[in-house]
Each structure stands twice: as structure tokens, then as C-alpha cells.
Write a structure and sequence with these properties.
The protein is about 25% helix and about 35% strand. By secondary structure, the protein is of the alpha+beta class. A hairpin with a 2-residue loop joins strand 3 and strand 4 (about 60-65). It binds flavin mononucleotide.
Length: about 200
Amino acid sequence: MHAGLDEASVAADPFKQFERWFHAATAAGVHLPNAMSLATADAAGRPSVRAVLLKGYDTAGFVFFTNYSSRKGRELAANPHACLLFSWEELERQVRIEGRVEKVSDADSDEYFASRPLGSRLGAWASPQSEVVPDRATIEARLAEAKHRYGDAVPRPPQWGGFRVVPEAIEFWQGREDRLHDRIRYRRGGESGGASAWTIDRLAP
Ligand SMILES: Cc1cc2nc3c(=O)[nH]c(=O)nc-3n(C[C@H](O)[C@H](O)[C@H](O)COP(=O)(O)O)c2cc1C
């Protein structure tokens, strides 16, 4: 059985609460604790979802990296709102994050790109993510071409970079007995009025 989640004991700041839970998921040996589902919607409001990896978070938001020309990239350009979901089943926990999306700075994308293994950097050039390709050989040929062109000094492709989800709401869900789960939701803007204040509510399970 897992400990509950209580309005009185959660952090006043949802980023702090996220940090506690993220560290707990890591310590519990959850497989890929930084894997999250990313939901986007196109300009007509039609949704799509896929997994991405969280590569950084702070009070500015939650960052992942991808191809800006991919389906998700195109949807976010047309409709810059997203929802993230972490599902840490071993701990009976999930976290839902909703907010606006912005691109991270070119400098931040450059820095993260440079930290990736060589194969991943070359792969970013080889893959026109989300496009139809005739066959696998086409991608392998593009990889060989990128290797030939760049060797091991691979620049960041202009269409590759980070997005930051700037949360407007974050909900923490803790499974409890008899399906009386705890749900604590933070919404930006609090009674104390400060820009960084959050309103905390309990939601029915
Ligand atoms: C565990 C996991 C982690 C992933 N992480 C990323 C990621 O960080 N960035 C990314 O672009 N795709 C990642 N992918 C692949 C995406 O789920 C997806 O297939 C790809 O980004 C294309 O999505 P789109 O066509 O909706 O844009 C990951 C897949 C899995 C299963």
C-alpha cells in the first residue's frame, strides 16, 4: 500500500512536488521514469499522442527534444498547447501537466544536441521524422550520407530542437484502496496573487 497525498503535506510549489515524485520513481527503479506521453492537437482540435523523454525541468517548464517538422512539431506550430502524462504504475502514480508550448532557445538545443551520442546526432540528420519513406534502405542511405558529410563533427539540424511545456495546471494522482484515489491539482494563479502562486484543489477520484 502506498502513502496518500494530502493537501496539507504536498509542496506549495508543484515543481517541488514533481521533483519529489520524480526522484521517488527513479529510486524505485521505474523503467524510464522520464518517459512521458505527449498529447497535441491539430488546428481543428483533433488529438494525437506519443511517448517522448523528459530531458529537463525547472520552474520554467518541462523540456523534450524532437524534430520540429514532425507531426507533433507541426501540430504544436498550429496549436501551441500540449498535455504530458507520466505514468509510474509501480508506485500507482500519474502526473498530468497541461500548458502552453514554446521552443527552447537555439543555444539550449545546441547544447543538448552536442551532448547526444554520435549515432543519435547522425540519426537526426537521417530521419525526416513522420514523413512517408519508401523503405528502410532509404533511411540507411541517408545515415551513410550524413556520416560521410559530417564525420564526428555533426551540427544540429535546423529542424531539430527542444520544446518546453509551460504548465498552467499539474495534477498528481495517487492510487489508494477502494478506488478512493487521491488527486491533487495545482492551477497557476493563487489567492496570494503572486505570479508564481498556485491554487491547490482536491479532485474526486
Ligand atoms: C520511450 C520512448 C521515448 C521516446 N522519446 C522520444 C523523444 O524524446 N523525442 C522524439 O522525437 N521521439 C521520441 N520517441 C518516438 C515518438 O514516440 C514518436 O514515434 C516520434 O517522435 C514521432 O511522433 P510524431 O509523428 O507524432 O511527431 C520515443 C518513443 C518511445 C517509445
